[in-house]
Amino acid sequence: MKRLLFLAPAVAFVAVLVVFFAGLGRDPSRLPTVYQDKPLPAFTAPPLRPGDVGLSAADLQTGGPVLLNVFASWCGPCRVEHPVFMRLRAQGVIIHGLNWKDQPGQGLRWLAENGDPYVRVGDDPTGRIGIELGVAGVPETFVIDKQGRVRYRHVGAVTPEVWSGKIEPLMAKLRSES
Amino acid sequence: MRRMAVAALALALMAGPAAAVNPDEQLADPALEARAHKLSKELRCVVCQNQSIDDSDAALARDLRIILRERIAAGASDEEAVDFLVQRYGSFVQLKPPLRADTLALWFGPLGVLLLGGLGAYAYMRSRAPQKVGALTAEDEAEAARLLNSDKAG
């Protein structure tokens, strides 16, 4: 018994070491969203495309699972993930977009130049709608289930690896949910 | 030329860290501005995570400073103004975490470790302390006297 007690600090030290070592590989910018498993708050974003309907929270409640991608023309990683979304759109994945803190006309030009993968696109030039959603930067992508609840928020570019490794399996699971 | 450069460098090094708050963001009422300024020092910038929104030059930090001031100007209490941001970005934005059930370990964990360590150290030192010696018996005294006097006898 006495001998075991003597080992306790060493065991505790190893436990702490394991926890800290596991923490080393985590990216501190990947914060959980406060809307995890909850619907996003109500918002109405004016249309980015002229003559369009824009984007509102109600659009995310139906036809799920859907993706909500927050993007901007000035954002580098958005350029990386854009071809992925173009491919997904062709495959029938429903993607809505929110153009965050862009200069007037820049978001529309971005879509004209790189293609438009979005079903609905809202314009958020002041960034206030994004702040309502807890967006810290672009790109961010929300995975929303059939009931309109956020099931995952991805911070950073949705690369082909992120899609096939994380989001695609989740979407398949959400599709099978009632 | 060289001296000029050295002087310029010295001046640059002397310059204190300036707050990122721009004049156009500040509230006209100095009392409200002081409150907003104090609160913004306690809120973490979610872009550059080890800076407060008061220190950060990030565009989002500027937006959050303005939102904070809007809430305060609209009559929100300090708590309400901070809660507005916590509701959107989570408790992570509070540089000083609130005392809650899920933050107990954060607040009192180090104290717990200190107590455990102290207890361990106390138990260890007690086990190593020399046994207390009792008073000498008459026989011991006689033996000691005999030994001490043995040189003289020899």
What distinguishing features does this structure have?
heterodimer; A: 178 residues; alpha/beta; Glutaredoxin; 5-stranded mixed β-sheet; two-stranded antiparallel sheet; 5 helices; 7 strands; 39% helix; B: mainly alpha; 6 helices; 0% strand
Strand-pairing-aware structural class of chain B: mainly alpha
Number of domains of chain A: 1
State the domain count of chain B.
2
Residue stretches of chain B low in confidence (pLDDT < 50, at least 5 long) are none
Question: Could you state the order of secondary-structure elements of chain A as H and E?
Answer: HEEEHEHEHEEH
Question: Which CATH class of chain A is shown?
Answer: Alpha Beta
Indicate the radius of gyration of chain B in whole angstroms. Answer: 33 Å
Might you state the CATH topology name of chain A?
A: Glutaredoxin
The CATH H-level superfamily of the largest domain in chain B is Cytochrome C biogenesis protein
Termini of chain A, distance in Å?
A: 55 Å
CATH-level-2 architecture of chain A: 3-Layer(aba) Sandwich
Hey, which two chains have the biggest interface? A-B, 18 and 14 residues
Give, in order, the helices and strands of chain B: HHHHHH
- The proportion of residues forming helix of chain A, as a percent range, comes to 25-40%
Largest sheet of chain B: none
Low-confidence stretches of chain A: none
* Residues in β-strands, percent of chain A: 15-25%
Overall 3D geometry of chain B? elongated
User: What is the molecular shape of chain A?
Assistant: elongated
Beta fraction of chain B: under 5%
What does this protein look like?
The complex is a heterodimer of chains A (178) and B (154). By secondary structure, chain A is an alpha/beta fold. Chain A has a single domain, classed as 3-Layer(aba) Sandwich (Glutaredoxin). Helix content of chain A is 39%, strand content 17%. Chain A is built from five helices and seven strands. In chain A, the strands form two sheets. Chain A has a five-stranded mixed sheet. In chain A, α2 (76-90) links the parallel β3 and β4. Chain A is elongated, with a radius of gyration of 20 Å. The mean pLDDT of chain A is 93. By secondary structure, chain B is mainly alpha-helical. Chain B folds into two domains: 18-96, Cytochrome C biogenesis protein (Helicase, Ruva Protein, domain 3, Orthogonal Bundle); 97-127. Chain B has six helices and no strands. In chain B, α2 packs across α3 (59-73) and α3 (59-73) runs antiparallel to α4 (78-89). The longest helix of chain B is centred in the C-terminal third of the chain and has 25 residues, at 104-128. The termini of chain B are far apart. In chain B, 16% of the residues are buried. The chains are: A alpha/beta (178), B mainly alpha (154). The interface between A and B is medium-sized, with 18 and 14 residues.
